[in-house]
Design goal:
The chain is about 80% helix and about 0% strand. It has helices at about 10-15, 25-105. It is rod-shaped, with a radius of gyration of 37 Å. The termini are far apart.
Length: about 110
């Protein structure tokens, strides 16, 4: 069965036979009620299977999205470190330019 907590299947409900006493229930009422229960059980099983497939799909999508997040975070970290190096190089070039201006102005 789908779950260990579910005791009866639709087939078991359908095949269940009851003993009839002198003051027993009306067999047609019991059969009609059991038919309703069987329909419910069958619908529940369909719903559970549908939801299980949906959960599997969502779990797979979630895993793929987590992998994309990890990839993008790695790319962002690499990009940030490269940007830091570039900024450092630009800062160094500006400093050198300023120093050159100071040195050349003194020489003139």
């Amino acid at each position: 069965m789908l779950n260990d907590k579910i005791v009866l299947s639709p087939e078991e409900i359908y095949e269940k036979e009851f003993k009839i006493d002198a003051r027993g229930y009306r067999p047609q009422e019991v059969d009609n009620f059991l038919d309703t229960i069987i329909k419910d059980y069958t619908e529940f099983i369909k719903l559970i299977r549908s939801y299980d497939k949906h959960v599997q799909t969502l779990t797979q999508e979630n895993s793929e999205l987590k992998a994309q997040i990890r990839k993008l975070q790695t790319e962002l970290e690499e990009s940030s470190s490269t940007d830091d190096e570039n900024v450092s190089n630009i800062d160094l070039l500006r400093r050198i330019s300023q120093l050159e201006k100071i040195v050349y102005n003194r020489l003139k």
